[in-house]
Description:
This protein is an alpha/beta fold and 303 residues long. Helix content is 34%, strand content 15%. It starts with 9 loop residues before the first helix and ends in a 10-residue tail after the last strand.
Amino acid sequence: MKPANNTLSRRKFITTSAISAGGLALLSMKPAFAGGLLSMQQPYTVQQVIDLIMKEGNLSPIPGTVDTLKSGSADQVVTGIVTTMFATVDLIKQAAKLNANFIIAHEPTFYNHTDNPDWVKNNSIVKQKQALLKKHNITVWRFHDYIHSLKPDFISYGAVKKLNWLPYFKTGEATMTIPVTTLGALVQHFKTSLGVNHLRIIGDPQQKCSRVTLLPGAWGGQEQVGHVEKDKPDVLVVGELSEWETAEYIRDARAMGSTMALIILGHALSEQAGMDYFADWLRPKLNGVKVSYITTSDPFTWM
């Protein structure tokens, strides 16, 4: 996660980011059986899976990327894959039960954007989590910059697909015009489609909405407000925000006569449909490897 006072969005960080997981490699294949009836794939290593994703996604190395291995080894033979938003302690245990030793997570494992284990010196929770990953022999690879570089961006596409808004979606555009509805009905649609139990809004639940700007995750206040100024939506929908930036902008806009509304879904809840879609995309490309998607649960209790 980037600091709240850093106005550089993580989307902009992508353009300055690099591959450290190694170069592209050809997948090794066993020859066909003598009868020519069946061709068998040798067990994949972590690196071969990464190379396959890069190749199939038509992705080029990004300098300085945060998409690096957070634990384990690129040479490890993959017994199963789990895609998710966060490699939480509970998720690591679930992966171990599935005999999946390769976790592909969209967000950091060690609580900061670059996964620097010394972000806070002598962090006891980091050390315990590292030990848990080692105990279960699990490799974690972050898939953040590259998934956002796919065409279309799988995170946004996965959310739009879950919302049944694909007819209104254009690759590379965050704003869509959907059939006219109310803000209250739109809130209910998000809750039902994305499995969100609670969310926050600024606006009148009875007001009409049609033009929606959807920015899953944490784009940062500058990007969020910039999209609003450019696209003039009826409602801005975000994963999370700095309350002293975008929320105050929306509040003041409404005080000066605008009817623009705001919906805050929650970070993981806004993006995890993209990691679900990614699992669906990856599954048929790997012969003999089980690929599972596991939802990252909401960490908050509402009182």
